[in-house]
Amino acid sequence: MTDPLAPRGWQRDAWIDTLHRRLEALVTSLKQQPGALALLGLGSTGLHGDRMDEYSDLDFFVIVQEDAQEDLLRSTDWVRAAAPVVYDFENSPHGRKVLFQDGVFAEYAVFTERELGAVAEPSMRVIWSRDPARDWSEVRAGPVPRSWGHDREDFHLNEALTNLYVGLLRDRRGERLSALRFIQVYAVDRVLAMQALWEAPGTTRDPFGVERRAEEWAGEMPLASFCPGYEHNVVAARALLEWLVTHGTPSPVMVEAVQALLTEPDTGG
Q: Which InterPro entries does the protein's record reference (predicted)?
């Protein structure tokens, strides 16, 4: 069996083929789910397929009947039927992030047809539909409300870990700015959110921006190490991972996956 922590070889065509075969396996699995209606790709999994390369992951929506949504969202059996999964967690009221055993990383959401009408996603394409004639893009409108109760340590920790993972892949691709945002912005926000949960009541913090006045209420955190700048994404990721391991109980699988990207020679483009 493939070791998810082993170097991929960073071979573009082989990796793209792996991603396409994983989508085919997911379609095969969803066809066996009576309530599944469609699989919609986003970004490079969607209309921007020409951008898919050896650093890409999978982003998709699964559209379901209302009575099937709970089962397909809470159970990952249909995902695991496509390929072995070594890590997954719920990252929104509608979705999860998963790492397959062979290193394929995926982020997906499970929507009903009614909910899809509140999602604005211009890169969406139909990968599979139980009704081949259905144009699922016709129901797009505005963003799904984000008010949900996941202000928990485990959520922030797992979001930070996956932000580091994606950010390091983009850094290897040469997307320094995008990598900086994932590592030195998104992951840092989640680390600050973790710290905020531990602060005593009455701490002066802006409830709408966790980064506001962080130098005052989170002064013990090595913020300079977390945010060393555009050319230092790897240094930042290493400092953030060390903080997460020291202050939390992160998934060993994801810790090793991030550490592999920090230690493997970068032979990518």
A: NT_sf
Provide the β-strand partners of residue 40.
61, 126
The DSSP secondary structure of 149-208, one letter per residue, reads ---SHHHHHHHHHHHHHHHHHHHHHT-HHHHHIIIIIIIHHHHHHHHHHHSPTT----TT
Whether the CB-CB separation of 247 and 220 falls below 8 Å is answered with: no
The residue among 40, 185, 204 whose CA lies nearest residue 111 is 40
| Residue 131: DSSP 8-state | S
Domain ranges of the chain: 12-139, 153-263
Residue 218 is inside which H or E element, if any? none
The separation between CA 108 and the C-alpha centre of its own chain, rounded to angstroms, equals 8
- The two tokens of residue 140 are 């797009």
Q: What angle do CA 40, 45, 120 make, to 5 degrees?
A: 55
Spatial CB neighbours of 123, under 8 Å, sequence gap ≥ 6: 42, 43, 46, 47, 48
The pTM assigned to this predicted structure is 0.80
Question: How do residues 116-143 score in pLDDT, each as one tens digit?
Answer: 877 767 788 999 999 988 878 665 444 4
At 208-266, the pLDDT tens digits run 678 888 888 887 899 999 999 999 999 999 999 999 999 999 999 999 999 999 997 65
CATH, range 12-139: 3.30.460.10
Evaluate whether 224 touches 183 at the Cβ level (below 8 Å).
no
